[in-house]
TrEMBL record:
The gene is FABP. Pfam families: Lipocalin_7 (PF14651). InterPro entries: Calycin (IPR012674). It comes from Canis lupus familiaris (Dog). This is Fatty acid binding protein.
Length: 88
């Protein structure tokens, strides 16, 4: 996993996320300070995503319900919940 120092640094960072959806295709742009990460994926298809550490990983993103994006990579499951303009 990540060192505790990096985990805490990630928790302290505030960023802006933009999600553009076109059917099953998503474009996600995350801006944190001067760092910008742009990922694109289609639900249910394997894709390559860039993580906050700059690592590129193979992942599959699924939609759970109407508002949860579930990303699985390297045995890790990440859930992003969309509530209007709020992402958790």
């Amino acid at each position: 996993g990540l060192p505790d120092e990096l985990i805490q640094k990630g928790k302290d960072l505030k960023g802006v996320s933009e999600i553009v959806q076109n059917g099953k295709h998503f474009k996600l742009i995350i801006t944190t300070g001067s760092k910008v990460i742009q990922n694109e994926f289609t639900l249910g298809e394997e894709c390559e995503l860039e993580t906050m550490t700059g690592e590129k990983v193979k992942a599959v993103v699924q939609m759970e319900g109407d508002n949860k994006l579930v990303t699985t990579f390297k045995g890790i499951k990440s859930v992003t919940e969309l509530n209007g303009d709020i992402i958790t």
